[in-house]
Amino acid sequence: MELRRQHLIDPVVCIRCNTCQEACPVDAITHDSNNYVVSFEKCSGCRACVSPCPTGAIDNWLLVDRPWTLDEQLGWEELPESHPSHGATIVETPAEVSDLMDAATTATGGKVPPPPSAAQPFTNVYSREAPVTARVAGNMRITAEGTESDIHHVVLDFQANAFPVLEGQSIGIIPPGLDAKGRPHNIRLYSVASPREGERSGYNNLALTVKRVAGGVGSNYVCDLKKDDEVLVAGPFGDAFLMPDDPEAHIIMICTGTGSAPFRAFTERRRRAHAEAPGKLMLFFGARSPGELPYFGPLMKLPKTLIDVNLAFSRVPDQPKRYVQDKLRDRAADLAPLLPDAKTHIYICGLKGMEQGCDEAFADICRLNGLDWASLRATLRREGRYHVETY
Ligand code: A2P
Asked: What digits encode the pLDDT tens for the residues 159-211?
């Protein structure tokens, strides 16, 4: 008998956040009001959807004797069993071929693992069907008034309910009401911007960094929240984009806009738990202007001994347009010795376009310093030291 391997989404674990559909470069992922599904014919097995998925629901590669159709998948309440492989010939699909080619992550099934020293995260403690209620403890705009970027710092208090999060994890907010088709809204995902012990130590709370998007249901709901409002929350989500729990770790953080949220969490964790840590923190942060850079004021006040801050502004009148990748190149002399260091971790979070720009900048820095970026990046990924979260 011949079996094939089919990429499928686990409907029980999936939170319908749409991340996979956005990440898929070949439009193989679609959804209806019930499920997110993958077309067997279209999926190239590139795994671009695997890393961004906050729950891991996407990472299922079942053996089948006949591929499940989209209609069948749309009707599922749960994932079927994989076909027993005993005695069967397994036909290589594009997914497997691409898997074999991606030597960087084959050992981990295509997914970049968390840093080995990271603390064990809790995930999916609360779901869309069984959320927890949090109370808004505060909501303030953190970009200059009058600028286009309306970004808010929102603090949620979980009161007596346990909500364990680690730096780098996200939570899901369920906007109230129904969508245009009369269905409950899907979960909106936001990275946590505070460290594990809370925005304020000793309080059962956390912070989010949320940008208002014109017409966006989730972002307008969150940016308009008032103190003491109640919010339905799912999560926490994410088990790979986590901070190394190692004071010797050098952490290179690269972000734009609200992509800074996890790095605020990382920095606060270091500041509170290991302010004198030997590991370096380097931040590369891109925004249109200082007024549009979230947390600009507090960031400028952080001690230079704690963090090396590099800001790239793209729309300051009479100044050249600068992106984070330009700043990486500016700091080539300091980055080159860090890149091959086994204690170095790289995180990229923010606009999708930044990913390629940073990759090229690292390749240039390596070329000029006798290093091979392709193999270095493969090692970093395999060892859980290279994490990308872009949208
Ligand atoms: P730009 O002025 O060209 O849009 P935003 O404010 O839209 O969230 O963007 C945050 C920052 O990221 C802006 O400075 C924006 O510049 C910049 N940016 C846009 N595209 C890229 C890219 N491909 N690589 C790096 N930075 C980018």
From this structure: 999 999 999 999 999 999 988 878 788 889 999 999 999 999 888 999 999 99
Cβ of 257 below 6 Å from ligand 1: yes
Answer yes or no: do 151 and 42 share one domain: no
Digit-coded pLDDT (tens) for 277-306 = 999 999 999 999 999 999 998 999 999 999
Q: Using the mean position of ligand 1's atoms as its centre, give its distance from the Cα of residue 292 in Å.
A: 11
Question: In total, how many domains does the chain have?
Answer: 3
Domain end call among 211, 237, 263: 237
Q: What is the pTM of this model?
A: 0.82
- Read off the CATH number of the domain in which 144 is found: 2.40.30.10
What CATH number is attached to the domain comprising 334?
Answer: 3.40.50.80
Residues 168, 263 share a domain: no
pLDDT in tens, 36-68: 999 999 998 888 888 778 888 898 888 898 999
**With helix as H, strand as E and coil as C, how does the chain read?**
CEEEEEEECCCCCCCCCCHHHHHCCCCCEEECCCCEEECCCCCCCCCCCCCCCCCCCCCEEEEECCCCCHHHHHCCCCCCCCCCCCCCEEECCHHHHHHHHCCCCHHHCCCCCCCCCCCCCCCCCECCCCCEEEEEEEEEECCCCCCCCCEEEEEEECCCCCCCCCCCCEEEEECCCECCCCCECCCEEEEECCCCCCCCCCCCEEEEEEECCCCCHHHHHHHCCCCCCEEEEEEEECCCCCCCCCCCCEEEEEEEHHHHHHHHHHHHHHHHHCCCCCCCEEEEEEECCHHHCCCHHHHHHCCCCCCEEEEEECCCCCCCCCCHHHHHHHCHHHHHHHCCCCCEEEEEEECCHHHHHHHHHHHHHHHHCCCCHHHHHHHHHHCCCEEEEEC
Which residue minimizes the CA distance to atom 11 of ligand 1? 287
Whether 276 and 192 share a structural domain: no
Q: Is 351 in the pocket of ligand 1 (CB under 6 A)?
A: yes
- Pocket flag, ligand 1, residue 259 (CB < 6 Å): no
Identify the domain containing residue 381 by its residue range: 250-390
Ligand 1 centroid to 208 CA: how many Å?
Answer: 21
